[in-house]
Amino acid sequence: MSFVELRHLRYLVAIADEGSISRAAARLHVAQQALSRQIADLEHELGVRLFVRHARGVRLTSRGAAFAEDARHMLAEASRAVLRVRSADDECRQSLRITYTPAGRTEEYLAELLRRFAGTRPHISPQCDPLTCQAQVGALRDRTVDVGFLFVPPDTDEFDKAVAWVLSFDRVLLPADHPLVCRDPLWLRDLESSPMLWSPREPYQSVLAALADRGVRPAFASFRVSRTSPALVAGIGAWALVPGDGPCEAGAVRRTFADPPIEVPQWAVWRRDEASAAVHQFVATCTSIEHELAEV
What is each CA distance from 185 to 180, 211, 239, in whole angstroms? Predict the structure, then answer.
């Protein structure tokens, strides 16, 4: 194999999610032997061992966990590229430029919002791109973006805003061998002495502020990440707060903690002087289904 293809990244992520080559092969509808060979070829191409085999399956190495996180981003970007090219504007369609800061179930909520909006406004073609909160504010000011979804809305008269949805951080993601995996009930203060995965980006800064308000000041892992994932928790051995259920793997465990959930709103933001009917129709759809999205 002379280069890495998207299919190799899909294979890697599937094995990481399932914690087993046999289960990943069934999920991907490929032969187990062929999947094992593809991963062995990938490890040879990269010159890095991605998985450690054990009696119950496989788990990511620390380098494998970092590569798996990048692989998820690349696959997500490839999917977004396909969506963008399929929804390219033509003469009969209005454009709507949307940006968002990805975290937790943000992309799931946004997809449901777009589905409902398309059902009533099929002539409007949204284009969605991920951006940091700071970059979104600049793009809104430059009028290169129509609506942004931010965790910290700008406090100026230039913009209007409305809560789009709320991310409820109600789970802790632990390495499978963490000493507190079996503690019941599990309180956030119990984790203060263990290293926590952290990020300088939102919504994690809001989560850390909420922890501090509750008197919980965790120790931090030695390096920061852009997003938390089961693969990173398993590979690095640090814990993370995550919103709701999601995929896990052999090296990580999701536990509900006894404290009240940490709730972080994500805001829809648009220019106050916006004259586009498409923007106002989209915002109206967003605010009308805010409570319904919590049930998605």
Answer: 10, 18, 17
